[in-house]
Amino acid sequence: MGTRAGAPRQDAAAPPPSPEGGAHAVVTTGLTKRFRGGQLAVDGVGLAVPRGSVYGFLGPNGSGKTTTIRMLLGLVTPTSGSWSLLGAPMPGGLARTLPRVGALVEGPAFYPYLSGEANLRRFDAADPGADPRTARARIGAALDRVGLTAAAGKRYRAYSLGMRQRLAIAAALLGPRELLVLDEPTNGLDPQGTREVRALIKEIAGDGTTVFVSSHLLGEVEQMCGHVGVMRAGRLVAQGPVAALREAGAAPRLRVETPDVAAAAAALSRAGLDGVRPGDGEVTAHAGEQPPERICALLVGEGVAVRGFGVVRPTLEEIFVGLTGEGFDVEA
Ligand SMILES: Nc1ncnc2c1ncn2[C@@H]1O[C@H](COP(=O)(O)OP(=O)(O)OP(=O)(O)O)[C@@H](O)[C@H]1O
């Protein structure tokens, strides 16, 4: 989609160096929202979003992602807790900080009969903080950033789903942004549109912008994000680099295929292995410190018919299902 390839250009997404330091673009402490009526939507969430990261905010529908995002942007008042954006404590710093934050929470309503460019002009004109004198350059840069320069004059209704969503992201990039917050940006897109948006997010992150992106799709987060925060029923149940979560959650297990399930399970327990789980024609257990070949020899020595033997690591999906207690949609 892009015309990137290193050519110098005015880039709406490239942030200027931030005067406010700090290793994190977003920090929350005990962020909580209880709606009138008693619903505890977000419960003591402590986010730490490293600057420059693509941070996937992952959780099933209804787990509190949108409410958290709305609190970050000052659209919903937290019941308790505190937060900062780009190093500035909120909500006091909202007016000063929000111009450096692009957000796509509920997609902007675009006019079908206007071109993409004309839609952005209207959108920009409605922003009291946007300087009309620089509108043309900023709109041009945003369209370029999302790869819509060639289609700028085309009517919105003729845009594909992916182009429509890229235009919505362009609307969030009408100024230099240090942080881009996207709530389920690929929801409702076809596979091609999903690929376009995912590639765009990676490009924007490549410019140095921190991207905070929510999703209920594990596969999507795995493909796009270096960091992840996992929500379950309003609580943040895990957070960190994807690789570290994978490593921490992926304690290797021994898997023994055998018709003698009960005998194999008993032998593994006697050998001191934890987490022995008999299954259908197989037994698994935590691999522990003992060399697998010794365990295998021990099983054979005890007369267990070993048909297959191996060390397996849980997939990322299995780790997250363990964390959230429910299945994730892994399609992306
Ligand atoms: N304005 C509101 N008033 C009362 N309850 C609400 C309100 N907004 C959200 N909730 C509830 O808070 C919980 C969290 O919703 P939220 O939209 O934040 O979750 P989510 O993870 O973003 O899910 P989804 O992707 O489906 O929007 C849900 O149970 C929802 O019904």
TrEMBL record:
<keyword id="KW-0547">Nucleotide-binding</keyword>
<protein>
    <submittedName>
        <fullName>ABC transporter ATP-binding protein</fullName>
    </submittedName>
</protein>
<dbReference type="InterPro" id="IPR027417">
    <property type="entry name" value="P-loop_NTPase"/>
</dbReference>
<keyword id="KW-0813">Transport</keyword>
<dbReference type="InterPro" id="IPR025302">
    <property type="entry name" value="DrrA1/2-like_C"/>
</dbReference>
<dbReference type="InterPro" id="IPR017871">
    <property type="entry name" value="ABC_transporter-like_CS"/>
</dbReference>
<dbReference type="Pfam" id="PF13732">
    <property type="entry name" value="DrrA1-3_C"/>
</dbReference>
<dbReference type="InterPro" id="IPR003439">
    <property type="entry name" value="ABC_transporter-like_ATP-bd"/>
</dbReference>
<dbReference type="Pfam" id="PF00005">
    <property type="entry name" value="ABC_tran"/>
</dbReference>
<feature type="region of interest" description="Disordered">
    <location>
        <begin position="1"/>
        <end position="23"/>
    </location>
</feature>
<keyword id="KW-0067">ATP-binding</keyword>
<dbReference type="GO" id="GO:0016887">
    <property type="term" value="F:ATP hydrolysis activity"/>
</dbReference>
<dbReference type="GO" id="GO:0005524">
    <property type="term" value="F:ATP binding"/>
</dbReference>
<dbReference type="InterPro" id="IPR003593">
    <property type="entry name" value="AAA+_ATPase"/>
</dbReference>
<comment type="similarity">
    <text>Belongs to the ABC transporter superfamily.</text>
</comment>
<feature type="domain" description="ABC transporter">
    <location>
        <begin position="26"/>
        <end position="258"/>
    </location>
</feature>
